[in-house]
Amino acid sequence: MKECNRKYYTNAITSFAVNCGGKQTIYSDPLPITFDDDTTDLGAAGFHVNTSMQWVVSHVGSDPFRESPRFVNTSQVILGTDMPELYQTARTSRSALWYYIVGLSTGKYTVQLFFAEIVIEKPGKRLFNIDIQDRNIKTDFDITKEAGGFRRPTNITYEVTVVNSVLKIHLHWNGRGTCCIPYEGAYGPLVSAIRVFRPESPNNSPPPARPVSAPSNDDKRRGVVAGIAALCIAAAVISSSVVYLWWKWVALVKHPNA
């Protein structure tokens, strides 16, 4: 994977932002920052490659036999932030979420993760783990506790070095916390937005979308890298889905009235 990335990608990006579970959102003060749209329904398990081929989102874990939300939102105002729209929507999963940012230039980056608990109120408790570049940075992360209350914003900032053009963010349920408040299946990771930028340039925004035209060599290289990442994710999703469906089938056979 590392060798392929170096071979096929030369003109890399240096910033990224996505509005998890929400529409594209642009902030213009002090400099333009565009948070990409992230409203593709991934079903019980699946992945989506962004049309600009800059990032991939993957999810596994929803119950295939029972409808459960992959996006959540609130119309209530989120106080304590100058970006309230970002915290009014979120992508969630009963098991795991992955975000891959593809084509980053080698170097140090600041990763910002945006959170607000907009589903589970007390006495419920959402707990999950957060890994960046396969390194655990938070265990039993409790959004409400960190933010100081329900529907309040909180951010995590983490410094990371990218050496192979791909940044991996993994949020996953660890089996702890409540499961059924305010409804059955209300657990697992939840994230409102993600932003990545060079530490010396915090106001850099992702490059604007180019007019539709014949793909350049850079587009082709980025497409190859995104394709490789997507294939890897697809394999993981398929494997996880098979195991999960098998487990559900066994549970239904053993406990048909459960």
Automatic annotation (TrEMBL):
KW Nuclease (keyword) present: no
Gene3D superfamilies recorded: Galactose-binding lectin (2.60.120.430)
Keywords of the record: Membrane, Transmembrane, Transmembrane helix
Transmembrane regions listed in the UniProt entry: 224-247
Pfam family for this entry, one: Malectin
Keyword Acetylation: no
Residue ranges of every copy of the Malectin domain listed in the record: 15-194
Protein name per UniProt: Malectin domain-containing protein
Annotated organism of origin: Aegilops tauschii subsp. strangulata
